Amino acid sequence: MDNHPTSFAGVTPTPAWAFAQYQHVRATLPEGLPADQQPNTRALDSLAPLLEQFQVFVFDAFGVLNAGTRAFPSAIERIRQLQSLGKTVMILSNAATASHAALVRKYQLMGFAIAPENLVSSRWVLEQRLRSAPVTGRYGVLAPASSEPDTLPVDGHPVLPGTTGSQLDAFDGFIFLSSEGWNEADHDTLADSLKRLPRPVIVANPDLVAPRGDCLTLEPGFFAHRLMDQCDTLPEFFGKPYLPAFQAVLDKVPGIPAGDILMVGDTLHTDILGGQAAGMKTLLVTAEGSLKGMNIPDCIAQSGIAPDYVAPAI
């Protein structure tokens, strides 16, 4: 497993903790459907009964197709089946550590026959935004060197472990790509710098947690919300559940109504909420991912986010 944090300031994330945290930050997420428009969730064994109902299938990655570096064999087979039926298959991921090209290679090596144009990552969405609406000044990029931060169309400079407060004060803003290697000391140094001088914080991965094998890791969204609580900053998020990520998918399938697209994910507050807000139909998978082991009907009732379908896996 990469060096993504599995604990921070006494917090070790569990599915129950992650769900409670998403509920805590609910006001910062899209509104979703009103209670009287929430669908009556239909339980399925898999998405097999839906093969003929939709032309476009959009899959979250972590918890649906893979857990960390481990691909789910059944997911590989399902993707192949959909492609053989002539369906459009897309991956919509909040992964931002890897460049677009590297992420495509990762999933191809796992066994998924995904072309570059069929993968949309939150990082890719951010890069398109920075090309159309450039930011000025020097930006500190929170990510390991292996993440190829030079693909960002910005005057970006790596924020390495141990970067001092005075060095952080010299930046005009920050881009949070990855939590890999992030720790309490570096986070507190950044928070103190932002308290002294509030500046933009752009977050390329809004996830609070990610499933990686037998544990959950803390992701940039968690640290961004922590910064919101610590200092006078309002991060700008790119990725699910926010509309630009879903709009990027819709733009790639012109002529297909959003209601004819199925969004498949493992998290109510990102995949399902965002898909609903974009007008898509949704399927929640539960055997792996951020809700593994949880009482799913109870989670749906507490959150007020009801998927159209629920299944253990695809």
UniProtKB/TrEMBL annotation:
Pfam families in UniProt: Hydrolase_6 (PF13344), Hydrolase_like (PF13242)
InterPro entries per the UniProt record, alphabetical: HAD-like_sf, HAD-SF_hydro_IIA, HAD_sf
Gene3D superfamilies the UniProt entry points to: HAD superfamily/HAD-like
PANTHER family on file: 4-NITROPHENYLPHOSPHATASE-RELATED, OS08G0542600 PROTEIN
Protein name: HAD hydrolase-like protein
Taxonomic lineage from the root: Bacteria, Pseudomonadati, Pseudomonadota, Gammaproteobacteria, Pseudomonadales
